[in-house]
Task: inverse folding
C-alpha cells in the first residue's frame, strides 16, 4: 500500500492589509486619544498614508502595531522608544521565521 501526498494551494489576501482606518477610527479601535496616535507616528511606530492627521489612513496591520505599543506602555511601563524598539525586534523575528520556513520547505 502506498501513501499518496496531496498538496492543495490556497490563495487569498490578508484583510488587515486591505482595511483603511482614519485617525478617528484608529483611536476608537485602540481606545486611545489622537495625541497618543500622533506620538506613535512621530516615533516611527506607525506610518500612515496621507500628509496630515486629518488625511491619515492606517491599515489593519498598523492597528495591531498601535495596540501592541500601547499595551507595552500601559502593562509593562515601557516608554514609547522602547515600544518602538520592541516592535522592530518582533518584525525582525517574524522575518527570520519566514525565511527559516522557506529554507526548511526546500
Result:
Amino acid at each position: 500500500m502506498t501513501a499518496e501526498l496531496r498538496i492543495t494551494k490556497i490563495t487569498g489576501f490578508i484583510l488587515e492589509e486591505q482595511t483603511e482606518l482614519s485617525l478617528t477610527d484608529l483611536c476608537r479601535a485602540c481606545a486611545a486619544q489622537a495625541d497618543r496616535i500622533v506620538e506613535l507616528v512621530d516615533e516611527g511606530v506607525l506610518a500612515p498614508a496621507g500628509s496630515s492627521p486629518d488625511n491619515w489612513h492606517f491599515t489593519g496591520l498598523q492597528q495591531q502595531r498601535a495596540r501592541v505599543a500601547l499595551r507595552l506602555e500601559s502593562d509593562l511601563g515601557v516608554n514609547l522608544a522602547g515600544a518602538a524598539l520592541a516592535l522592530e525586534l518582533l518584525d525582525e523575528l517574524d522575518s527570520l521565521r519566514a525565511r527559516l520556513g522557506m529554507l526548511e520547505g526546500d
